[in-house]
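Box 3.1 A note on notation
Throughout this textbook, protein chains are presented in two layers. The first layer is the amino acid sequence; the second is a token string describing backbone geometry. Keep the layers aligned when reading.
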Amino acid sequence: MEAIDSITSSFIALLTDIPYNQMTVTQICEKASVSKKTFYRHFDSKHELLVDFIKNDIVVPVKNLRELLPLDTIKSAPLLVMERGHHILYEHRALYKNLIENLGKMALVELLTDSTYELNYEIYGNYDLDSINRDFAAYFCAAASAMVQVRWLEQGCPLDEKHMAKLSNTWIMSHWREAGIAAGSK
């Protein structure tokens, strides 16, 4: 675990100084003081490290908070979860801006969508949807959120994170409520 933490923290540090597409595994390993063999024991590529970083940066904290807050009994819980996600993006906006500039906007949208799809799929498990509808609903919410988040980052976060979270919560929760009404909540 120590090697993974060292590799990840070195990746994050380098991402604040070096464009992603110019960063090499060698640079990451040198900064982390690990061998390439150690790097490749944990990650197949720099891209896999990036995917792991995004999941651990955004999805894991949001999922953990979601598990602590019963969304169906605490009215403000969904907003608090959204606020946490936007706060993380805002905290690391320079890193994500680097990714937008070097990977491209749509590549980051795809990474964020893929990273949050599973969580959305889990949420839609609370509704009586067949697997195809559940899949498309989860993908829709993940992709819509990712597109809005990337646009917000790309524009330099013109709205504060709480305002963005409130807007996102309104859009996403209305979709979840509509899905629940149309399909019937479990």
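The radius of gyration is 18 Å. Residues 46-183 form a domain with the Tetracycline Repressor; domain 2 fold (CATH 1.10.357.10).
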